[in-house]
Amino acid sequence: MKRIITIIFLILCIGKIGALDLESYEFIDYLLSLRAPVAPVIFEDAVIFTASSSFRRVGISFAHEGFSKVYWLQRLLIPRDPAEIEAETTRRNRNVQQNEDSGILFHVEIIPAGLQNLDYRMIIDGLWTLDPTNNISVSGSGNIAHSRVPLPSQIRPPSTFDGPEGSLSFRFIAPPGEIITVGGNFNNWDPFMYEMRETSRGLYTLNLALPPGTYHYVFYYRGERYTDPNNPNKVYTQDGKAASQAIIR
To answer: Rounded to two decimals, what is the model's pTM?
Structure first.
């Protein structure tokens, strides 16, 4: 229950940033796995920066923007278990904190097209500095040191339409040995009919032949619904829930 509440809280607080699917299992699970700030991590088409929440305020500014903008890192707050809150409120007979500090501040930056390196500086408690989690730095203009994230060659991400003509090719990443299924308007949203196969460690796939039409679908994993991280087209169904959309012509 606590994990479900945490996921909902993160989605509401963070929203969506560019093309990165922040509702995906991989992104949420990565954030929840952090126990301390780490070096910048490339995640899908973005870079995740982290810092300690012991600092009063941390900002980040990028060389490709001429350091003209400062993006302030957000505090990663984790909702407490409702049962714990209720018990503590009853015991103390006063309001208690609803969320707890994870100890981490973070920022998600979409990777700009055409860059080979993402150079940046941080502002920590009012002072310009290098990123203390990143041991890669270079000398920029005016011999001012910049932190650097080397970027991989941009490769086209896998598409739901990569399968044979007249089909959809579903992909989902999760820990090995899990049960992942796909449901949508093509099977009346049955969460059990189409189980994906683990074709390599942690990669689950399913190719489904379908007639021409517009399809809405989601993945089912551990009792929760997930939209397709390999499909940017999202819709809301009649019951108000998010789903991915694909069209076979």
So the answer is: 0.54
